[in-house]
């Protein structure tokens, strides 16, 4: 099952790496990633993952990361349109 997460993380070299590492350790495949810089201190990360595992497992683990400032699980209909827009922009 596909899920899309919207995160705001610190603009720190390790922040995105930690998010990807946790997703991998928890058994989720990253199938889409979009990163934009909000300002000098924050980055917005749109992360699309796929797994048969419960998405709440990943959400709870990502929320524990120090560099994750905000985390939202996007509704399926909104997530699908965001991913389509992302693919069209590439």
Write up this protein.
There is one protein chain. This protein has 90 residues and is α+β, with helices and mostly antiparallel strands. It has one domain (2-89): 2-Layer Sandwich (Alpha-Beta Plaits). The protein has helices at residues 15-25, 55-63, 76-89; strands spanning 2-10, 29-37, 42-50, 68-73. Strand 2 (29-37) and strand 3 form a beta hairpin. The longest helix has 14 residues, at 76-89. It is globular. It starts with a strand and ends with a helix.
Q: Secondary-structure blueprint of this entry?
A:
Elements: E1 2-10, H1 15-25, E2 29-37, E3 42-50, H2 55-63, E4 68-73, H3 76-89
Antiparallel strand pairs: 1-3, 1-4, 2-3
Question: What keywords describe this structure?
Answer:
single chain, Alpha-Beta Plaits, 4 strands, four-stranded antiparallel β-sheet, 90 residues, ACT-like_dom_sf, Acetolactate synthase 2 small subunit, globular, alpha+beta
Q: What's the gyration radius in Å?
A: 12 Å
Look at the structure and give the CATH class.
Answer: Alpha Beta
Kindly estimate the percentage of residues that lie in beta strands according to DSSP. Answer: 35-45%
Number of helices: 3
Second rung of CATH, namely the architecture: 2-Layer Sandwich
Average the pLDDT over all residues and give the rounded result: 88
Q: What spatial order of strands do you see in the largest sheet?
A: 2-3-1-4
Largest sheet: 4 strands, antiparallel
What is the 3D shape? globular
How far apart are the first and last residues' alpha carbons, in Å? 23 Å
Number of strands: 4
């Amino acid at each position: 099952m596909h899920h899309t997460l919207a995160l705001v993380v610190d603009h720190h070299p390790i922040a995105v790496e930690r998010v990807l590492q946790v997703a991998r350790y928890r058994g989720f495949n990253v199938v889409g990633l979009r990163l934009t810089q909000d300002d000098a201190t924050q980055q917005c990360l749109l992360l699309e993952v796929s797994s048969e595992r419960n998405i709440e497992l990943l959400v709870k683990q990502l929320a524990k990361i120090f560099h994750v400032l905000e985390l939202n699980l996007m509704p399926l209909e909104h997530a699908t349109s965001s991913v389509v827009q992302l693919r069209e922009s590439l």
